[in-house]
Amino acid sequence: MMLCGVIPILATPFNDDESLDLVSWQRLIRFMLDAGADGLTILGVLGEANRLTDAERDSLISSAVTTVEGRVPLVVGVSHAGTFAAGVLAARAEELGASAVMLAPHKEPVANDERIVELYKRVARATSLPIVLQDHPASTEVQMSAALIARIVDSVPSIQAIKAEAVPTAPKIRALREQCKTHVAILAGLGALYAPFDLAEGIDGFNTGFAFPEVLKAMVSAAHSGNFARVHALYARFAALIVFEQQPGLAVRKEILRRRGMIASARVRHPGAALPAGSALHLDRLLAAAFGGQDLSHKLEV
Amino acid sequence: MMLCGVIPILATPFNDDESLDLVSWQRLIRFMLDAGADGLTILGVLGEANRLTDAERDSLISSAVTTVEGRVPLVVGVSHAGTFAAGVLAARAEELGASAVMLAPHKEPVANDERIVELYKRVARATSLPIVLQDHPASTEVQMSAALIARIVDSVPSIQAIKAEAVPTAPKIRALREQCKTHVAILAGLGALYAPFDLAEGIDGFNTGFAFPEVLKAMVSAAHSGNFARVHALYARFAALIVFEQQPGLAVRKEILRRRGMIASARVRHPGAALPAGSALHLDRLLAAAFGGQDLSHKLEV
Amino acid sequence: MMLCGVIPILATPFNDDESLDLVSWQRLIRFMLDAGADGLTILGVLGEANRLTDAERDSLISSAVTTVEGRVPLVVGVSHAGTFAAGVLAARAEELGASAVMLAPHKEPVANDERIVELYKRVARATSLPIVLQDHPASTEVQMSAALIARIVDSVPSIQAIKAEAVPTAPKIRALREQCKTHVAILAGLGALYAPFDLAEGIDGFNTGFAFPEVLKAMVSAAHSGNFARVHALYARFAALIVFEQQPGLAVRKEILRRRGMIASARVRHPGAALPAGSALHLDRLLAAAFGGQDLSHKLEV
Amino acid sequence: MMLCGVIPILATPFNDDESLDLVSWQRLIRFMLDAGADGLTILGVLGEANRLTDAERDSLISSAVTTVEGRVPLVVGVSHAGTFAAGVLAARAEELGASAVMLAPHKEPVANDERIVELYKRVARATSLPIVLQDHPASTEVQMSAALIARIVDSVPSIQAIKAEAVPTAPKIRALREQCKTHVAILAGLGALYAPFDLAEGIDGFNTGFAFPEVLKAMVSAAHSGNFARVHALYARFAALIVFEQQPGLAVRKEILRRRGMIASARVRHPGAALPAGSALHLDRLLAAAFGGQDLSHKLEV
């Protein structure tokens, strides 16, 4: 299994009463597959994993497994405040048919690198699935140096990818490449905000929630063929949209998914903020400027 | 139902492999009842609730309900990053036989008082149980002013108690008394560190994990009969123990419970810290000084 | 005096031994004036104000006053952990010839809106200069609601501008416009990352450290003439540069200033991070792509 | 010079208009010397150093040097957001006659142990004075492992003492003793809250703001003669006072100093909180209980 290319992070669709909308869930998954996704990651930050019950997690995983039908790797977020529970979630994801798990450390009152190493070792013992190590201090409030991540990667063979989301990203990616003795995929996140720099550093793909995987596919393809002029041209064309979408708050992202026909409601679970006043109008203009007359509800040409 | 007096917060006992130890759980509960607890709170911070799976929560609640047999109120912590899930946990606690739920707000990227009010309103709609509002910024990183808490209490009738753990506690308790129009119980926490001041402010009891409810009972009793000289004498006698126990890290607390014979292992779930080097020796001296030759595994005379 | 248009935030130039470089300081100021700056702000976050002694502040202010010669407003940052000292700094800035002061609140252990109102009232009493209220939670860790800012603005007449840097910026700017009864200028910051959205919300200008005021001037001019197609075209052209520059760490910004010939060294004072590995190469490409063969050491045509 | 025994941290006295009260300053210093202080530390957290201008620092240092007349070591806090400025403050303290400086690291967006080592090395080059390394995460938000502190101590010979204020303190002190190859004094802080445990770990003294150095002297003396029963008896007698005083907010501490006649006003500089409602009454009772009929304005017998 290769964790590379464009692996969208999926939002979890809710009905307007905040209950799970599994119909939208399946439509969202099929849409992403049709748009060329090389894998799918569910139950991450954008998936509001921290606002779900364990039973809801099971429903979402099972439904995703059924819908994906093994066509691409299905990565399941299993980050948890407790290591034991993270192991339980990982084992459960494996039992339900996931292809890999994604795991970030939990902030503790006193930072302790040794315990972060142990976290990955323990979860690796709880599941035979490959692990994606997520380095996203903006959500975890945990800072892992490149040296620490390299040490984890080199001592936990089942880690096959790093989701590199610590800013500034380019020097961190460079340091990870230099310091990891084991080869692992390095995937960019953060809504592709730093796409041209991350691609120039030789990332293996994107693992992020930007709602237009077609755009990311085109960038990866251009970068892999050495055509960085095209990477920059694509970035220039979509930068305003990328910047708008990566703002704090998930409602903007879910609203774009809704407009693309992937999900029925942009509802974010409380206490997450609803779409801010004025955002719909900004989006109207951005989408018109970026895609002209194209029908957003189909795979886009970029 | 009255939420007052001494309501211990229970630790969750684990075996050395970090699995649940339900035998110790029942022993712990019975011990606390025998020691005179006026209620019990489970699945709070000391209960490592954030390191449990939902299935483990169910086991612990059911086992506690069975063991308590309705003799005292059983309060179940239901704090969750998501409001919807907190409501589900509250409904589930009710279904399993709990007497009340305890709820603290979750830190959001942008603080928003309105959403905290909504949190309590929504959970109150999800369960018919009374609610204990927990104000513990040290664990939640959420600051609620006395005015905000009063507003919540006055607009959510099912809130029957406030667990007042924002330092400095005495002026906060005073402000809550002045600003809440509705009468609610105010309970002190924080390991009873501020016991003499909190009692002088007229609290209705303790809701904390200090492993010697006998001591807290004696203090409450002295305070209620106006004997503050005895409150101070009790505090002086046990202050070193109280101070030692309330230090960050749960292992010290669990070690005391173990020494009292309530639980079989002081194990804290990873990534929680184990008992620090030297702490066992400090405890030996403290317990000897505080209780002399008494057998800690029985209800103590204070 | 009008605080609008493009008001660059100036970096403080240091020699390689971290001592003040007042020669570069004057060159930097003259360059910005020649490039069309409508005002200048010194001693802000980019100015590493928190790493300066009071004597160094005096030197920088005096030198700036002399160099600006009153051609445009000179705004001096006076944020301080203590209100009394902020007042002293404001009075001193006035004495030395500044045109206005910029002030952000200081994070306290317990957040308290009332004290933030008092801060602005007290500093307004300490100086007769106009005040720019800075709302930048990323550096202050203080969150001010639009309602609080409106209350401050409406009760402190000397506040003449808001530097609106709380994300997401567009809805905050909209809310400020709606809730402030007094008219004040609203200026965008954050390296112009959200320029098209901020301009669409009707900001009065930019108050930020982006090293190409020519670009910001062109955007403001386009927006004021209603030509948002040009705003978007400009943003697309410079977005990669804007995104690169606004990354955490001031060294990238100072390196661009150095390349433009404004300052002699990109040195950031310890413990600030030096230019990360690889960043020089990214910059080479970005500047070549954005400005082609133009000489960066002169005012650029955009 | 020995940095051991009881070295009070001094509050900075202000008049009711928040201006410096140098008369009280000298009275405070003389009082502490008369009470048996083995040294004095000024311009720390309790000294509200972060709310002072550089000119005020100079006044306070000069006045203290004059008043102390070399009888005991005078330690001056020089922590600053910038390393260069910390060096300037240290050199200035030396020039004005200080005996040593106290230095804590500054929180940076990305934690970096190497830069903390450099901080101490650089300040050690800026002054020939001995350095007290302060480890107080509660105010700095910087966590230094025992291994990091040992590395700093072993590579910066002028560090002669560690102010050990990271909780839990006892295991940290133990680890520092084990890991530092160089002998340095270890001093307890945190208002002496953990006095019996810190003393049992063999600390060399107290470096804290507790307003009764007589009590700390008695504890140190008892511990040094191996009389831990007396240590515990003293702690029991004064625990409620110690606990009350170490609560967040400096006003309580300054109020006690005022009652002892050391300073004229308990004023804390804005935005620091004033004495909370009810605190005066709690203090009345605590002081009466702890010291009976003794005149607090003289050296107390304990």
Task: Please supply descriptive tags for the structure shown above.
302 residues, 8 strands, alpha/beta, homotetramer, globular
Would you kindly provide a written description of the structure presented here, covering whatever features stand out?
Four copies of one chain form a homotetramer. The first copy, chain A, is of the alpha/beta class and 302 residues long. Helices cover 46% and strands 10% of the residues of chain A. Chain A contains twelve helices and eight strands. Chain A has an eight-stranded parallel beta sheet. In chain A, β7, α8 (195-200) and β8 (205-206) form a beta-alpha-beta unit. The longest helix of chain A has 18 residues, at 228-245. The radius of gyration of chain A is 18 Å and the shape is globular. In chain A, 57% of the residues are buried. Chains in contact: A-B, A-C, A-D, B-C, B-D, C-D. The A-D interface holds A 110-111, 143, 166 and D 110-111, 143, 166.
Fold topology:
Four copies of one chain form a homotetramer.
Chain A: E1 5-6, H1 22-34, E2 40-42, H2 54-68, E3 74-77, H3 83-96, E4 100-103, H4 113-126, E5 131-135, H5 137-140, H6 146-155, E6 159-164, H7 169-179, E7 185-188, H8 195-200, E8 205-206, H9 213-224, H10 228-245, H11 251-259, H12 279-291
Parallel strand pairs in A: 1-8, 2-3, 3-4, 4-5, 5-6, 6-7, 7-8
Helix pairs in contact in A: 1-2, 2-3, 3-4, 4-6, 6-7, 9-10, 10-12
Largest sheet of chain A: 8 strands, parallel
Overall mean pLDDT of chain A: 97
What value does the Rg of chain A take, in angstroms?
A: 18 Å
The total strand number of chain A stands at 8
How many angstroms separate the termini of chain A?
28 Å
- Chain pair sharing the greatest interface: C-D, 35 and 35 residues
Shape of chain A: globular
**What low-confidence regions of chain A span 5 or more consecutive residues with pLDDT below 50?**
none
| Strand content bin of chain A | 5-15%
